[in-house]
UniProtKB/TrEMBL annotation:
Keywords for the protein's UniProt record, in alphabetical order: Signal
Organism, as annotated: Mesorhizobium amorphae CCNWGS0123
Annotated protein name in UniProt: Uncharacterized protein
Stretch forming the signal peptide: 1-26
Length: 166
């Protein structure tokens, strides 16, 4: 009987350790809107992490108009200043293709847009968004909380628009 109890206890400890290990590697990737430091001071930023290792990021800030930044994460490629690339954003059965410019200081691809841009509506949908480029591959991002976070940034821009909601 004692041997059975030890086996059950050992199995329970192993299962708990396995669960803790899995949780430690699964980075929380939900949308948030918070003040972040930029070279010009604090700026409200809506952001989310994604990709296979949760090291890619989408960020939306307001510099007079909404600016979307896409950090590819470690791609293994050296990005050259002054380049641009076409990216396809997909979510909810819709797709929007945009050309983003590399911001050399931060090594992010960026896009300046207005508050009615269809890409903002796509990013405020439910489910998951993928961002793909022939040259830079594909990353996926959860959309849970995106409508609220993006809405806060758009309100800071003075041009809040309604989204599909989460």
């Amino acid at each position: 009987m004692r041997e059975i109890m030890r086996s059950v206890l050992a199995a329970f400890i192993f299962a708990a350790a396995l669960q803790a290990t899995q949780s430690a590697y699964a980075a929380p990737c939900g949308w948030s809107a918070k003040m972040e430091e930029d070279e010009g001071g604090s700026v409200l930023t809506a952001s989310v992490c994604g990709g296979p290792k949760a090291d890619a990021h989408l960020m939306l800030t307001c510099f007079g108009k909404p600016v979307l930044s896409y950090d590819l994460g470690p791609t293994g490629q050296q990005l050259e200043p002054g380049i641009s690339a076409s990216f396809v954003f997909r979510a909810g059965g819709k797709a929007v293709t945009k050309t983003l410019e590399l911001e050399a200081m931060y090594n992010y691809f960026t896009l300046h847009m207005d508050s009615a841009d269809p890409l903002l509506a796509l990013l405020r949908a439910k489910g998951e968004a993928t961002v793909a480029s022939d040259k830079y591959g594909e990353n996926s991002f959860p959309l849970a909380g995106s409508s609220v976070a993006i809405g806060k940034v758009l309100a800071a821009c003075g041009k809040a628009s309604s989204g599909d909601g989460d």
